[in-house]
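Lecture 7 notes. Example A: sequence first, then its structure tokens.
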Amino acid sequence: MEKYSLYRDRGSGIAPFLPISTQPSGIYLPFHIFLFLIRLPILFSVILSYFFVLQWLPIGSLGKKASLWLILGTPGVWWIDLQIDGVKKGSLAKHHKARLPQPGSIIASSYTSPLDALYLAAIFDPVFTASYPTTPKVQRISLFHAILGAFQLPQTEPPKDANLTDLHTLIRQNSHQAIVVFPECTTTNGRGILPFSTSLLTAPPTAKIFPISLRYTAPDITTPIPGSYVTFLWNLLSKPTHCIRVRIAECVYNQRLAQSEALLDERASSSDTLLGSEDGDNITASEKKVLDRVADALARLGRVKRVGLGVQDKQAFVKAWTKQMIR
């Protein structure tokens, strides 16, 4: 993959956009084909039933969550490895109110797979948003569009007809739900954390921001390459089970530093913080620290590093990858 060396992070050598290779099936190929053929029509049936019928019926939050878990369970996504910062295993019930996202809080999630949005919807029933590197505002999107977004080419700017808002307004309008933000703006293969959009900076200072890292075993159900529907479905449906590793960090608040500290920190070099290059020059050092705390938490939870490659780099990578594939 030396031809894609331009799309490796200079400091770490991480290539966050390269698809992860699937282990050969070997002698289990007939079994994998059998699983794929059995599960495919079932999966499409439950997906169509939910998005075209069930989500419009008055079945309540529990009914919708049960339907989403049925979608997750069809391809064998049964095992959830959940850990929460500051909570010992077996004592979650004593701390869940303070340590888990609640209505009015913000989920800053990693973004690697269509399953990210599906899992978050099945657990938290949140409002989903799309972030862009050129604006601090967000676009409210549906669960269906959040899933499709994992297969689409990233955009540096929102669509011209997009109805943009900020997180403060969204929380006020949806006080009974949590808000999901994908601050990296596009999917990766899970091996690095991209520069953030500044959308998290529009959160009210009292709102809790929960960094949540989602990783998968096997990791080949990530979708860093747009349009990889067939590959994703094969990797998802042909294996007996999948495990989601969920890590939730302690909450972060969008609070500014004291004025005296902020004046000193304004002298800090912007190169110390990996932000979206399109909008990163317009924020203060105190705002950078807020984004740093969330990004560092996601990197720590996912056991990966932060990288300097952003949305524009992924656009260039996809162009080079597609050109190579059609030769």
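Example B, a different protein, same format:
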Amino acid sequence: MIRPASRLSSNVLTHPTRIRIPRYASPSSLLRRGFATPTPQPEQPRLRLGSLAPNFKASTTQGDIDFHQWIGDKWAILFSHPADFTPVCTTELGAFAKLKPEFDKRNVKLIGLSANDLTSHDKWIKDIDDIAQTSLSFPIIADPKRNVAWLYDMVDAQDMTNVDQKGIAFTIRSVLVIDPSKKIRLTMMYPASCGRNTSEVLRVVDSLQTGDRKGVTTPIDWRVGEDVIVPPTVGTEEARGKFGDVREVRPYLRFVNVGK
């Protein structure tokens, strides 16, 4: 038996109401929470591992680019910074500049992003080169309106006071590793207060590329040349035929060495 609904209090609507759910938060609602967004745009893409990296056009310190065309047939690392002439960002870009030859060996292109214009970027690069005693040679995207940062969800929701003079949220320290098919393979996100580890970024590139080439997975703290793991989808006998010696710790944990 279906009972009639009980009488509702005077504070509750007694007739159904059509509620419009916005596809994205409005700038005014975000301003009330402490920061503004760029020009309203459609809902941000879901940046899941394996999804296509959103394409965009932008101005950089090395000219205008179409992001996917710029990647071409190489790997790419897109990494963001809150602002120019900030201490942590300066040390990071100097470290990436010094390590660029290692990324080049791995067919990886570097591209930075910071929430300032090109004039500021050009001056900042001179500072970076002087402080780090290097020569920064990869492009930095000018993103003063945070259009790319918003597209890639590089905005910190935990620190609503992290805004510029116009009330626009600064970016956080995001790292995205993108493969030649333009798929997102790995992401890292750091708060503005925490500098990144460039050696770890290089290490995960080695892991991803080794996995693609050899059909293996890598254990904790793995480095090139160390033992790798046979994935569960490959039987032990099949692994011996493919890799040679197999060190079986457990039926589900088997190690092989695929060299460098």
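Note on Example B: The chain has seven helices and ten strands. Residues 1-41 have pLDDT under 50 and may be disordered.
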